[in-house]
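User: Hi! Is it possible to get a structure for several chains at once, not just one? Here's what I have:
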Amino acid sequence: MGGKQNIISLAVFIVVAAGFPWILPSEYYISILILSGITAIAVVGLNLLLGFAGQISLGHAAFFGISAYTSAILTTNYGFPVLAGIICGIFLSAIVAFLIGMPALKLKALSLAMATLGFGLIVYIFMNETITLTGGPSGFVGIPRFNIMGYDFYSDLAYYYLVASSLTVVIIISLNLINSRAGRALKAIHSSENAARVMGINVHRYKLFVFVLSAVFAALAGGLYAHYLSFVAPSAFGFHASLQLIVMAILGGMSSVWGGVIGALFLTSMPEFLRIYEELETILYGLILILCMMFMPQGLAGGLGKLAGYVSGKLFRRGLK
Amino acid sequence: MNKDAALLKCSDIYVRFGGVMALSGVSFQAEKNSISALIGPNGAGKTTLLNVITGMISQSEGSIEFKSRDLSSIAAHIRSQEGMIRTFQNLEVFAHMSVLENVMTGAHNRYKYTVLDSILKTPKYFARERQCRDAALEKLKFVGLEKERDLPALDLPYGKQRLLELARAICGDPALILLDEPAAGLNSRETRTLGEVIAAIRQDFGITVVLVEHDMELVMSISDQITVLNFGQVIAKGTPRDIQNNPEVIEAYLGSDD
Amino acid sequence: MDLGSILQYLVSGLTVGSTYGLTALGFTIIFNATRVINFAQGEFVMLGGMLAVFFAGALNLGVFPAVLLAVSCTTLVGVCMERLTIRPVQGANVVNIIIITIGVSIFIRGVVMLFLGKDTFSLPPFFGTEALEFFGAMIIPQSIWILLITMLVLVGLRTYFNKTIFGKAMLACSFEQKAAHLVGISVDRMIMLSFAISALVGSIGGVILTPITLTSYDVGIMLGLKGFAACILGGLGNPFGAAAGGLIIGVLESFGAGFISSAYKDAFAFIILLVILFVKPSGIFGRADIERV
Ligand SMILES: Nc1ncnc2c1ncn2[C@@H]1O[C@H](COP(=O)(O)OP(=O)(O)O)[C@@H](O)[C@H]1O
Ligand SMILES: [Mg+2]
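Assistant: Yes, the chains can be modeled jointly so their relative placement is included. Here is the combined structure:
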């Protein structure tokens, strides 16, 4: 069942995540890490839906955005405590996910892609046009930093640890879920819906469950995002953002929870490094995407896993001799 | 034989696909603890009947009664929970799960715990998972796949995937199991083993079996009752001996197909 | 709500809808050959317009030579895309191929941005600028050109698929690749052809619309989405449905903009689309297949 393997990789992750800020040359990189971590929370959730249950959502950034705006508006305009704002945002996203998932998850593959894409665009258009509420295309400013019981997470380092621990919780929940009855049901649905039904699995209910759960994770990420940047604008929640989440999940590797983390880290930080090429940034980004998929069909996690297997295999065999 | 002994009773089933009448007025029943075979040439409507019984497609007319309860318009997963589980003609193993996980999935509704239990890893989670695992291992041993338990199901050879589907189906502890051409693609040695396994399923677990099969030797050797379908209609019913000597069957099926 | 304005909205809807329809047609042709949704389809449409602008301006060509050159170049891009990124990964997971097409679309956008810049460009209309009055609606000649050319493309494709040996071979591939291969059809070549035709049709859609709506390096994203919506709406895999779906979305949008609010016109179109999908999942012109078990 890989339980031991999970514990080892989790321990490695926690050590690396805790030590990361101390080996980075500047504060600036911490902010990239924070954004990567926030994105990773959403991608890990999306991967439960896409990689494990095999259901696509091309509008996931909408859940990210609904929660970010909800929390931003409630805390800034109505004086809600930040934690309450985030919780409300998560709740609203979950309800919207439930309502849209209800009919949409009855659709097959590409129709589902279209339905979720359409939903995402509708939300995006409303974010742009309801100017009195959201500030419109120019965005919503002055959102308070995350604080809890009087402690402000003002330093980036503090915020980094907040995000890293949230991500760790999300990863643990996902790992535990996958190694359970519900996880097997999701994987079964991915392989064969008919066989899953024959095993007594309520296919629609499980799809809806994982859809709402992944929306909840995206919403958590949205809340952390809004209260970090103190500014949100619709452009972060449009089709491009949804596509980005999908690409991260697939590029990272859909068959493991870690794929989402690796994909998010890789694709969030890569543009920062490509930035020095200025004009060529977009071209290189596209090129890297193409090449990765052509030569690493299992994604980065798959590639790394193979590498790890190869190395440990070598070591082990040498040890035997 | 009293009437209540029928575990499954389909009456007057009609199914139409566009212009094709796949089933027209088929009635079929399976007595408790029997092995009932369903035979007929390709395209006769055997798979379609299994689909209707298990709720994969809905009939345009007719009713399905199981354990004396009308299930005619009940969702497939509920029929499964009520105790009817099937296998598929075109194998539907969960390709990317391990062999053991496949069989554990079969017991989805037998060892229940909530999502919260699994996220918090409560004692209930561990207890139920262990029970589920033990049950699955027992079924794997029963079909002779215990060595392959950690392989991805995809990596099993064809014949073993068939056995895996069988193990997965019985792990749900059904009252009725419906097998769609379980011997297709098996060699004669594998087919004999399969026959023994099917007989044991009834013997050891008390599961009623509906068997769709082309392999006449297998059908004749283990069935109590045989129903013959042709062009979506029942053309004969009886014991293996009756069927072997029925001229209409010989013409429609045995004569033309083999 | 007089007849004139209704007619006006209808015509402008059909005009934009033609481009959506041609984009959708491109999606459908590649989907039928490969089961892949080509996310770079919108970039073909963008390339048609942008290259025409470039050839007309920088090379000082007339509109017609520029248009022809732009369409040919885009077709070539389609072929190159297939040879360089799709054929090498033959047999790969559909999801992976879709990500590759996303990569290609980002790449093409990046190249266009690098060489042609981020500005918005216009193209002179093909013939005539004087609007005609028709029952109180003002109709510009370009609209008529767009509808005519779209019709022509549809008729041409129909003839191609029904009458020519290549067209029939492509149809055969879309039904059953293995069988097509067995009867000696080169599936590789058919897939390449499908990319060529998709790029051709898409770039025509892009170039005919440019005189009306202007163009820039990033118009492909929205056009691609509308085209995708159109082919799902029409019933995926059905070329006629795709074209019709495009026209329907164009008209919905146009009426939404006219009678509700121009800010929400896209939202309006997508809401209708969702409702249709939820009521009839196989699309307006799609047949609901019962999945074989
Ligand atoms: N999903 C479907 N769509 C259209 N026709 C079908 C479908 N499933 C089965 N059929 C048709 O119904 C008839 C019965 O098929 P089936 O039940 O599979 O036969 P059998 O299992 O006896 O070989 C055949 O003519 C077949 O072509
Ligand atoms: Mg059959």
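The mean pLDDT of chain C is 89. Residues B 17, 20, 22, 40, 42-48; C 290, 292 surround adenosine-5'-diphosphate (ligand 1) (CB under 6 Å).

User: Great, thank you!
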